[in-house]
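Sample entry (472 residues):
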Amino acid sequence: MTSTAQAPQSGAGTAHPEHLGHVIFIAAAAAMGGFLFGYDSSVINGAVEAIRDRYDIGSAGLAQVIAIALIGCAIGAATAGRIADRIGRIRCMQIAAVLFTISAVGSALPFALWDLAFWRIVGGFAIGMASVIGPAYIAEVAPPAYRGRLGSFQQAAIVVGIAISQLVNWGLLNAAGGNQRGHLMGLEAWQVMLGVMVVPAVLYGMLSFAIPESPRFLLSVGKRERAKEILAEVEGKGTDLDKRVADIEHAMRSEHRSSFKDLLGGGFFFKPIVWVGIGLSVFQQFVGINVAFYYSSTLWQSVGVDPTDSFFYSFTTSIINIVGTVIAMIFVDRIGRKPLALIGSIGMAVGLALEAWAFSYHLVDGKLPATQGWVALIAAHIFVLFFALSWGVVVWVMLGEMFPNKIRAAALGVAAAAQWIANWAITASFPSLADWNLSGTYVIYTVFAALSIPFVLKFVKETKGKTLEEMG
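Predicted structure, serialized as tokens:
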């Protein structure tokens, strides 16, 4: 997808108040893709142990079923831009909504393990599309004065989607008598958990028919008058529409379509700044954050926590994730990206180290000793809080800002691909690592959190308050 940067505008700084409610509705509807991103990526947490039991598979095989969705994510993210440039942002959203729906139905009614894995890939493809199309569409439709705040809807929707999925899972588990394989509506509880996503998926599809196409896409296909109508709709009739159209067209003509070749250079294949972006993406995942969202119920049950309680703790962790994300959104422009990342790294290292210590104790009657159990639970929440208020938001902000204009799109694509690959590596390895040594696994995550501190200090430059043009 082409960059959403536009030439400076005069007279387009604010939307008229009577239009703001409509613009918020448009951004919120587009952010439903982010909600499904969060919901679909974490809902599997409630089904892990049931899948292991039903299909009688070991940790390595189970991990591949859980992690295989990330392959779909990577493909969806890589292709969404081109699809959206060809058929439009709205059509792209509608395709994603259909894929989310198909994935939910297929995952709820699998014939065997292989087709469950296939439906996970389909859902992953939809997640990848939603991760790209939502932010790009909001940036293209939002009035310049509100772009930052409306753009934050996507991240907020993701963390709310994670929380709602855990709340739904907990409620369904209670309805099934605390048994993930207990019967509900003629299915096993875990199947219902995966199938419930049909509801937000259909809502996303319906909302996509209620919002306008991006003016930028309309101009790219020669529909100037319709583009003007939508600009008037979102920015108010007082806007100089001819000038706004001219500004957007000028920006589109002057854009440099960066390619992979533009990233090459330096002594280590890529230019140094590209390696910094890859490093940020890898560190963000190698602290083990997605273990908290894909496997937390399994983790707590492995140290003796009752299944119903383990689902509740997964929900409380996701609430902490929302709180941390709000904190980051408040402070990222106030204290800067780099200080926030350092604060997060220190907090994550402490939380992970405490978890490693707690998990090092032998189970007594199938449970951690009381003190270690409470330390593990509190430390897990501390870890998620510090991740959410720092690296969860800061990395995406910095990746959008840190690269020179000439290579921004291609470099962001490489960094995002590195993030999906790192996510897959952590997700696919956790069950086997936990079988090997749960405490040792958390020591590994602690080491990466600690190493992120000197990495940020030495290689990451502050981008707060700088224009994109100042990046090179």
